[in-house]
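Board work, copied verbatim: FAD-dependent oxidoreductase
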Amino acid sequence: MAIVGAGACGLTAAIALRAAGVDCVVLERDAVASGSTALSSGFIPAAGTQVQRALGIADDAESFAQDILHKSRGTAAAHLVQAYTQAAAPALDALAAHGLRFEVLTNFLYPGHGVHRMHTLAQRTGAALVAALLDAAGRAGVDLLTSAHATELWVGPRDRILGIGVHRPGGAVERIACDVLLLACNGFGGNEPLRRELLPEMGEAIFAGHTGNDGSAILWGRQLGAALADLGGYQGHGSWVVPQGALMTWAVMMEGGVQLNARGQRFHDETQGYSEAAVDVLAQPGGIAWNVFGEAQLALAREFPDFVAAEAAGALRTAADTATLARIIGCEAAALPAEIARFGPPFHAVRVTGALFHTQGGLDIDAQCRVRRADGSLFPNLLAAGGAARGVSGNAVWGYLSGNGLLSAVAGGWIAGQTAAGRS
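↓ predict structure ↓
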């Protein structure tokens, strides 16, 4: 079994395979595994986990599925919604047995979730999640090959994948045979021509994801005649701090913060979601907004390492009165909305823009993560999950429910591991 990509998806699949006694090799293009997972907040939504039950949180896969479908207005792939919401809890419980100590965020609800179901490690970073998965994979006996950039597939009769060509340091190309191949190499956000073709509304936006999101899975899929789906779906974020280049948690918005444009105007309902907020922010003058909030929200923000780093880099501006806040924003004090009075003084502000984090469309797959051809038939031994495959956000930015990316990665990786184990 060969797996392309050592993010949350590939490593979860590999751990599942080793638990089933199946040998596998994970191919990672970078010298150190990181990818989109490391750049995320590391929050994984799951319903009915052991951690939730220990906290007395009543949740189940059906409720989780309904939240996903409601956010996507019924457009998310129903078979994957069911499969992922059912697999997420067993996947996290199994990873916990491999040493990942999850906890549930209970001090605020992310938009669209009916209960507290965001699971995180104590560090609350995607980098910590990758490190913990790497440690668990190593102890499970997973073979990881870094600086191994997969560039070509070897295909036999009836579209059976025979192996994969891997570029190594120094220019050498290794050919690795496999009986099953899992593409867990994320999306196409880092491929500018492909992004402009498939996501023109984000063609000029900052790409805040990993450069390894080069669209390899889609390009291979096109060569093979695979079906593609939901290519218009993606996770944006309306709170990318500029010029520092850091993510500011949307928890501040969910706990009462507001976004104002350069005219001092509030321009949208911040509680609808941070993904579609990216489009709303980019539509403002200069593509810029200001997150405005008070002392309580600042205390919450400081619980997140990304914000702490952004604050240390000078992102936070504080005003003793509305006149000073208006000067920071560059607007007239009279233009500021009346509701900001609830924050202060003092008032806090951070300058942000909209950004693209990762795409949510890709290879079309069935509920077992098997890749489909354009005619609906299945490739005999090709699997895809995570950002390489279609997700559960439908075909538009507003369909993204908080955590859908890591849900597809972890639950999809877990299912793909089970599928591959059954074939071996």
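The chain has a mean pLDDT of 96.
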